[in-house]
Amino acid sequence: MTTPTTGCRNTPVLRERGQREVFCGLTGIIWLHRKMQDAFFLVVGSRTCAHLLQSAAGVMIFAEPRFGTAILEEKDLAGMADAHAELDREVARLLARRPDIRQLFLVGSCPSEVIKLDLSKAAERLSAEHAPHVRVLNYSGSGIETTFTEGEDACLAAMVPALAATEARELLLVGALPDVVEDQALDLLARLGIGPVRCLPARRADDAPAIGPNTVFALTQPFLGATHDALTRHGARPIEAPFPFGAEGTTLWLKAVAAEFGIAPERVDEVTAAPRARAEKAIAAAAQTLRGKRIFFMPDSQLEIPLARFLTRECGMEAVEIGTPWLHGPIHGPELDLIAQGPVISEGQDVDLQLDRVRAARPDLTVCGLGLANPLEAEGLATKWAIELVFTPVHFYEQAGDLAALFARPLRRRAALSGLAPHLEAAE
Ligand code: SF4
Question: How far is the CA of 385 from the centre of ligand 1 (A)?
Answer without folding.
Answer: 20
